[in-house]
Amino acid sequence: MNLVFEIGCEELPATAQQPAVQYMREELGKGLAEARLLGSAQLKTFATPRRLTVIATGITERAEDVRKKLSGPPAKAAFVDGKPTKAAEGFAKKAGVPLEALQIEGDRVVVEQNIKGQSAAEALPPLLARIVRGIPFKKSMRWGSLETDAFARPVHWIAAALDGKPL
Amino acid sequence: MPNDPKSSSSSRGAPKDFQGLLLALQTYWAERGCALMQGYDLEVGAGTMNPATFLRVLGPEPWNVAYVEPSRRPADGRFGENPNRLHQHHQYQVILKPSPKNVQELYLGSLRAIGITADDHDLRFVEDDWESPTLGAWGLGWEVWCDGMEVTQFTYFQQAGGFECRPVAAELTYGLERIAMYLQNKDSLYDLVFCTYPDGSKLTYRDVFWQNEREQSEYSFHASDPDLLFKLFAQYEGECRRLVEQSLPLPAYDYCLKCSHAFNLLDARGAISVTERQGYILRVRKLAHDCARLYLTTRARMKFPALQDRALAEKELARYAELIEEKPKSEVV
Questions:
Q1: Does domain A2-63+117-166 sit in CATH 3.30.70?
Q2: How far is the C-alpha of A72 from the C-alpha of B287, rounded, in Å?
Q3: Is the pTM of this model over 0.80?
Q4: Average pLDDT by consecutive 10-residue portion of chain B (333 residues)?
Q5: Where are the domains of chain A?
Q6: Do strands B35-36 and B63-72 pair parallel, antiparallel, or not at all (unpaired)?
C-alpha cells in the first residue's frame, strides 16, 4: 500500500524544513517497523516552506499474527504449594491470559501470547498524530485560541491518504 | 470581525502620496472589522508600546484595531541629512486577537489595496522572530519582503510583559515611509509627496518633517540635559510604582512609557555606559511587567467584560484566579 502524509502550514524557517521531514520519515519508519508493517517499504521526503511530506510505497496491508513468549516472575514466587500467588495473577492479567495459560519454563513463569497483526489503516492514524505533535523545533509557537498545540508556524491542514483513500 | 480579503477597496492602483497610503490602509482594515485607534499621545518607539497593543494583547478578551503610530527613536536621528533614516518614522500597526486562520490572506489583501500584488512583485515571508527586552515581549513570525525589501513585521505574540498571550494576537507592523518610497519611486525620504492639494500643488515630507528631524537630532545627541533626564527617569519610575500600588494600571503604564523614552534619550546622548545599560533596561522591564500584571488583574476582577462567551469567561477566570485573589495594596474607591 502507498501512504501520502503531508502537513500544510505557514512559511517555516528555512532551517526547520529538512530536520522536520527527516524526523517524520524516521518516526514513520520506526512506527511501521514496530507494527510489522514496514517490510521493504520505501520512504521519500519532500519539503517546501509550506508543506512537509513523506511518501511511503510498499507498506504491508496487514501484519501477520505472531506468537510471542512473555517472561514473568520466578516460578517460586508465582506458585506456592501448587497454588498461584498474587504475582502469578498479576502477570496473567498483564499478559491478558487466564491463569491456566501460564507455563513454567526453567525457573520462570512464561506464557505464549498470540499477537494479532494490525492493518496499516488501523495503525497509521495514532502513529501519524503522534508524529505531527512530536516534531522537534528549535522554537515553537501557539496561534489563535489553541490551548496546547504548538508548531513552528500555524498548521492549516494535515493530509494522510492510504492508496488514495483519506485516513 | 475581520473577514473577506476581497472587497471594495482591495484592488486599487498604488496610492499617489503618503496620505493616500494611510487612507488606503485605514479603509482596508476598518472594512475588515478593526476599530481605528490613534497613535498614542506619549513618546513611543513603536506601535507595540501603545497601550492599544501592549496591554490589550494580554488576557482572553478579543481585540481588533489598526492605527498609525509616529515612532520616536532618538538614536536613529540623522539631522535630516540621511535620505533613509529618521528620528521619527511612522508605523501602521494592526492587532488581530485571536489571530484569524486567514490572517496571511488578509495581510496580502492589504498589500493589494495599496497596489502591491503577488503577480507583479516578489513577496516573501522570511523567518524573523521579534523580541522587545524592555517590554518582556516576544513572538514568532516573519519579515515580509517585497522585491527584497522589508515592508512589514508580521508577528504572532507569544508573551507580553512576561505573561503568556492566550489567545495569541497577530501583529502586523508596516514601515510606512519605506513602503511610500517604494510606491513613489523616491530615493530620499524627504522627496516623498505627503499629500497633493486640490489645486495640484504638493506638500513634501521635507516640508512637514525636515525641521523636526534636524532639531530633534540636535536635541537627542547634543542638547539634552542628562542630569535632568536621569532625575526624570527616577521620578517616572517612582511614580509608576506608586500608581501600581494604587491599582491604576493605565496611568502607571504611561509612566513606564515615560521611563522608556527617558532611557532612549539618555542612551542616544551617550550618557549610559555599556555596563549600566542592562540595568536600566531591566528596570523598565520590571515596570512593564508590573503594569501588565496589574492590567490583567483589573480585567479579571471586572470578569473580562469583552468576552461574549460567558462560559469561556468562567474558564478564563479560573486561569487567572491567583491574580484575582491577591489583595491590592489599596483599592480605588
A1: yes
A2: 62
A3: yes
A4: 48 84 98 98 98 97 98 98 97 98 98 95 96 93 96 97 96 97 95 97 98 98 98 98 98 98 98 96 97 96 94 92 68 45
A5: 2-63+117-166, 66-115
A6: parallel
